[in-house]
Amino acid sequence: MAKFGYARVSTLEQDLEIQHERLKKEGCTLIRSEKVSGGSRDHRTELATILDFLRPGDELVVTRLDRLGRDTRDVLNIIHECEQKTAFVTVLDPYVSTKGEMGQIVMTVLGMVAQMERRFIKERQREGIERAKQQGKYKGGKRRIDREAVWRMKNGGYGPSAIARELGCSRMQVYRVLGEDTNSGNAP
């Protein structure tokens, strides 16, 4: 029976140290961590590793439920996967565990709260952007991909997969650039 800690923050700039310290104090023998959004399970390889490794009687420990995920369905699916392996999930703040009968109900409610919080954050962000636009202060998000390079490579005979590999981005980003520029008449 082992205790596995999972720590997560959403951005590269955020620090995992407080979560690591708390998980160590809780007696976690192994702590996996990552800097990736909790909005979905995509790209959360460390979480997947823990879930694959869990054995009967093991425990997955997180400091707060939103570290496990921001979407109620994802959180409940993670808990379900743990239960299928007869492993447990424990959240430290507020303390709740699936070891007890009430734990599942409390986890469901906390998962719904985490999802609502995520929606509130997005709404506040949208409101802030709209206000900044009205005041002429909004300059838009920073471009994450060199659009000219995409078109140079496209015109040079590269396909979307090759362009994505070369530029270190996803194919979807390449398709988006090619589609936006074609629709707006900005294609070279």
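That was protein one. Protein two is written in the same sequence-then-structure order:
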Amino acid sequence: MARTDPPYLRIAAEIRRRITSGELREGDKVPSTRLIIAEWGVAMATATKVLATLKRDGLVVAKPGAGTVVASRTRKAAPKTEAELSRERVVKAAIRIADAEGIRALSMRRVASGLGVATMALYRHVTAKEELILEMADMALGEIRFPPEPPSGWRAQLELMARAQWALFRRHPWLAQALSITRPQPLPNLLTHADWATRALDGHGLPPSTIMYAHITIFNHVRGIALNFEAEADTESGTAVTADAWLAEHEPILWDLVSGGRFPNFAGVVSRAPFDYDLDTLFEFGLQRLLDGYSVLLAKSG
């Protein structure tokens, strides 16, 4: 049976063709994630992997204010000798692989292959895959630069943080899995997020323990929903079935279960307001409800 490439590779191949044929020239905008979703009918996770693959191959770059554009053909090539390696380059190469192929595809051998060096060369910079993943997580978290002057009010400050984290998890679908709530990793850039959240909540009369619980709760809300990014990407790359196609196949089964009368409350609610399995909607709904609850908590402490 012929092998079928996952959707993100087929779409990336088509955009690559447009670039190499001259249809898209240096500096031209390439299809955004939204345009990819609209043109090919795939999910956000797939569209994100398309652009990550093209970036990994050096075909496109992110240009501030313009989006993702066709890269210059004269860009410096990735390091090809062990002497050119550094810890930063190893970590960046690993991030590119995890963005495009998922955290399960990551290995020291895979990173070395992408850099064109022997696997043993990596061990001068990172001692093991586990250390590499921590370095990747810290570098990714460092992409967020909080403003030196925070917006007015604790709620605006927490919203800024949560939405920045949500966008970060979207760019790096593997990141949510790399972080732990029960076993927090000693990552400097993760502590930057904690410092921002605790500053927003401190000084309002809340006990220190409550401030910590509130900070962890909101971070885990963002991370918890973001865990679906990697799972969705893994499923699509393995089965070539989009989220919409999966729902089209399984929704009738759900309705057969619901229509039998065993779950009247659930059936009644869903029939009056069909539910949209949209992760952005779930994130925003949960964020606002959490912050509403924090408002009550702060009012009681004042």
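Confidence is low (pLDDT under 50) at residues 236-240. Keep this in mind for the problem set.
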